[in-house]
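Q: Fold this one first, please.
A: Sequence and structure below.
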Amino acid sequence: MEHPINILERYWKFTEFRPNQEAIINSVLAGEDTFALLPTGGGKSLCFQIPALAKKGICIVVSPLIALMKDQVQSLNNKGIKAMALTSGISYKELDTLLDNCVYGNYKFLYLSPERLQQDLVQDRIRLMDVNLIAIDEAHCISQWGSDFRPAYNNIAILRRLQPTVNAIALTASAKPEVIQDIVKQLDFINPKIFKQSFLRPNLGYLVFNETDKYYRIETILKKYKQSSIIYVRNRKLTLELSAFLESKNISATFYHGGLHNNEKDKNMEAWINNQKQVMVATNAFGMGIDKPDVKTVIHISLPESIESYFQEAGRVGRNGDKAFAVILKNENDENRVKKQFLGALASVDFVKQVYRKLCNYFQVPYGEGEYLSFEFDFNTFCKTYKFSPSSCYNALLILDRNSIITLSKQFKNKVTVQFIIPNAALFNYLDTHTEYSIIVKSILRMYGGAFEQVTKIALAKIAEKSAINETKIVNALKQLEHDGIITLKLAETDAEVTFIQPREDDKTINRIANIIEQQNNLKQQQVKAMLNYVKNDTVCKSMQLLAYFGETDISPCGICSVCTNTKKTKVSSTDIKTTQNQVIELLETGDQSSRQISTVLHTSEENIKQVLKLLLEHQIITITAKNTYKLSHL
């Protein structure tokens, strides 16, 4: 068996492992059932990829995240390692061929979702495979106490029966102690070897600031720390607004959200990865699988829904070991906003039943039927049709997705169909006088020969590649061709696709998951409460609060978070305060000033200035004007 360090160096070009990686790999190679808790950036994937490459046979990787599966498969293939993922949209015949390749084709990795394990064909072929390891990624999804519990993860136990002699490794980046115990129990681990890397990030300062003007504070942070940054916002609209604001302040920025076309996502991502843009403004759809080592700041301008999600997003900074900062900017409105966003929109059992019935009616799915039928889904139109609140409806659909009632793909795409409706000769007469459309039409005809005889689905990206014309110009050309009576055109823009997994049984379908819905709603309430407690608690070190949440007790103050630094500031001598007071008075003698202006002129933090202003106000040395500026009382 080849030594793991040689595999690491050959494929990943590293000469040493990160903390705990080698011990975890050796446990897996020794045939032990293994649990690995490694925080974001800890290198979880190598803990199963290297043992699988060291041994003969194929590794089966179970993951709920299609995007992450695709990224890992692409990365392995780029290294010359044979890997595949069984994602949605694969026909039965294609699935049959792919599984045969896993049995006979010397593949090293098969990635699949837990839902795929329900298919008899998949189970039958897994029995025939020479499996060397079972890897369960995002393993917290198997626990009902985990933040992303998915009942389909219970199907993973099937793998233990299909391949009873093969050991397993479960991996996650965030799990409380009770979740770890539940994972081990659900996966039927025998004498498991449990590896828990401390969540401590000594180079990372966790900062929470009260801000009335969040954009101004962002600007000052990014001009002070000009390295790479991520800013998380709560909706798609804000990604555009904030990135435009930063550009107007000469801070290079781009944006990312789930509704972008794939080519725009890739372009924006590449600009940020290559440091052509300093800032990525994104929704929480961004970040999974990103391993950029030089991110200096992660800034949240709205409160995350849980400590788990915050810790994962904050963990994307400082992976190179340099000092870095995870910043939350909050104000008095944020508590009500986070409660409204994450608790006010929780879907009750009755509401989930209502959304499910309407969804079936919307697509005209008959009672008792619908299994594995797929439909293009315009979410906004659906909500308007039935007068549903978008946030509540979206939460209900996520519940249906997580519980394998439906699958909801949230990938934006264009679906375009065309048919030429004039004779061949008339078409080319038209192109003689409209030469600007010639290359587009000829590209379509060469790629889709049946477009004269029938309505034909075309791929804009492929036509764009063949004709060297961007997709927007192609769409405009097709609209003109339709207007001129040359083609029929159907141009559907959807932001999702729905596939029904179970046959329609209305209330009976939802009654089976009613207890899960109620339990997850209670968990969400606890998580939001924990997040609010974290941002409100200004007496205990922020790092200690986070570590305690994940069950770590042997911890001490970090010295660099907002609580620790404020504690240091309170110890400023009375002489220093008196000096600053005199400087403020001298400045106000020249005219009224805002606290921000005073802070800028005196090169002192706004927190210190506010402390001094408070003292001066108490002693009636200064007063506040109608414009919220400060002036000397005797002037």
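Q: Good. Now the second chain.
A: Here it is, same layout.
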Amino acid sequence: MTVDYKKVGLKSGLEIHQQLNTKEKLFCSCEPELFKDDPEFTFLRILRPTQSELGQVDSAALFEFQKGTSVLYEATNKTACLVEMDEEPPHGLNSEAVEISLITALMMKMKPVDEIHVMRKTVIDGSNTTGFQRTSVVALNGAIEIKGKKVGIQQISLEEDAARKTGTKGQVINYRIDRLGIPLIEVTTAPDIFTPQEAQETALAIGTILRATRRVRRGLGTIRQDLNVSIRDGALIEIKGVQELDLVAQIVENEVLRQLKLLEIRDELKKRGVTEQDIKDDFVDVTSVFKQTSCKVIANAITQNKIVLAVKLPCFDGLLKKELAPGMRLGAEMAGMARFWGRVGGIFHTDEMPAYGVTVEELNRLGKLLEKQPQDAVVFVADTPENAKDALNAVICRARIALQGVPEETRAANIDGTTKYMRPRPGAARMYPETDVPPIQITKEYVNELCNRLPELPEQLMKRLKAEYGLNQKLTKQIVNSEYIDLFETLARQTKVSATVIAVAFTETLTALKREGVNVDAISDDQFTQLFKLIGSGKAVKESIPDVLTWLAKHEDEPAEKALKSLGLGMLTQKELEKIIDEVLDKNSEFIEVRGQGAFGALMGMVMKKTRGRAKAQVVNKVLKQKLEHHEA
């Protein structure tokens, strides 16, 4: 489906969250690192929503509380303390993190605030032990240029990162609090983005400026993009947790399609004469219909003394299976709300039947019990009476919303570019002052001092890299936009390896490996350094880079030299190389007699195939020429 984004009134904004590379966490002196081993201690918490100073309760916070979950926190003494456990007040703001935030703001031509005040933002999904996230505005009203167009930067905030979720068991969620409190910068754009491609280009530009500070973390999970997307007659949708930059445009495209299709469904329901009063919460126990069912999910539920509860949606026939965007349907939206509000595994509906072992006969009996007409749809769920009722209440709520069009909500990004229902959009009641952290005054003298030592802007950096390292335009842009610019410059200066070879490895090679499913984020800086030092000293060749990096990605903390040994990529001795060349020449003696020196190219290819990763091409070239001349003689 081709969409005229100007005609539909697309408006989008970004919130870029990037971890800062500081020595300590934001409000304590703990190491801002993640631990891999078992936790040294755990503690259990149940979080509850509270009223703001205005007597309001945030809807998103209430939503999380009503899910009835508790949280088990895991920690080590090295990466967490009483501050993360909410047993001790936070210490003062990390001055290093404040400086990095202000430098970033000044690079985006923003105006720093006179005083930094820390606020509390209500979050009770368990990712913060306190039930809130601490955040503070650092600068306002800036802009960056994207292909000649100015995109406003509304504000930059400094905040603490959340704990990381490690699993769920029943009603208990597990979080590790090692990440909790790591300094995080949030860059918020104005809604100046009017196409999906602009959104992706803006995210790239902001990411490039952040990396240009040389003081941000890199690797999986250190940066994420949140998107705000709306269209005319639609709604403002917040999409959380876009991990891959390449997905930004696709997610915006899919959200526009989703909203357009929801508006079509709204109009279709109006044509069919459906009103909110028609959509009733008349739930019917239909367990008897499925007593002998072949549907494993339903049969297992009945075995556990659960029930099957159903509800009729008048005039919804065919609409639940309607595709909103690739991989997204109205039925799936209802299922998402049912899972969160009803704590169920999912729902069944007649638009997708017969399927999953549910037969035509069972559908007919179901239809009779609910007095279903051909134009109606039926949704049913198998669970405990309480959960099933809550789930169908969520379905009814979503069906009524379908009459209005697009509901305002927060959605989560999936790795395939689709999104799913996450929770209601938060309101203004979630933000209030933090009384335990004193404000920090930002003086003009301090700002002027920072202005005098700002890092190179991306344009300046590209110009210098081309001149200093002889990189071409394409490769220069790729390395500047990569996460490895610092390591690239270090290795280009400290090793004898060509800067072009290093740049290609950090851009094209890593991109290709990532597409093949290799976890390149697991490769440490130390392992990269070891590999390029081996190449520079003649103990490895550049052709071995893809194979060695693939091995290192699977063997954390193992040395690059061990990778060469395990892969059989140790450099050949002169004697071993000569033996291989002699074997190739003997095997192709007739070919050499016919072609003479003209056989060199083909022979070179044969030898390189046998020695790739274990001998330098120039050495092979030299020895082969000598051997070929001798062979002819």
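Q: Anything worth noting on the second one?
A: The two ends are 69 Å apart (CA to CA).
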